[in-house]
Amino acid sequence: GYPLNIEVKTIKCEDSPVDREFLLNMLPKVNYPALRKAVQQISPHCDPPLPEIPENVDVANTESNQNLDATVIANMHKVMFDVYLVEGWLICPDTGRRFPVKDSIPNMILHEDEI
Known about the structure:
Layout: E1 5-13, H1 20-26, H2 32-42, H3 62-65, H4 70-81, E2 83-91, E3 98-102, E4 105-106
Antiparallel strand pairs: 1-2, 2-3, 3-4
InterPro entries: Trm112 (IPR039127), Trm112-like (IPR005651)
GO molecular function, one term: tRNA methyltransferase activator activity
Protein name: Trm112p-like protein
């Protein structure tokens, strides 16, 4: 199932310089509803909480996205590039299978009985 749910044990936020052009080039590749869901799941574990991102963004409309204001770009950059799941689990919504994340590396290997 997709998107995987996120259960946080440890999260790390590290600020990085906002690169507007890079973000705008990445947006067409983003499943925006999945991004919003991930932000909602991890934000309560961040101190301070993650910034709000718009409810809807037409990620495929590159011309319209050029008009996103600097605050929206900065907020989207924060949630896409500055937040790291250090320890926790990614959980399949269909099967409930829990994939552990340790040192920011998910272990997505299936057990033999799951293949």
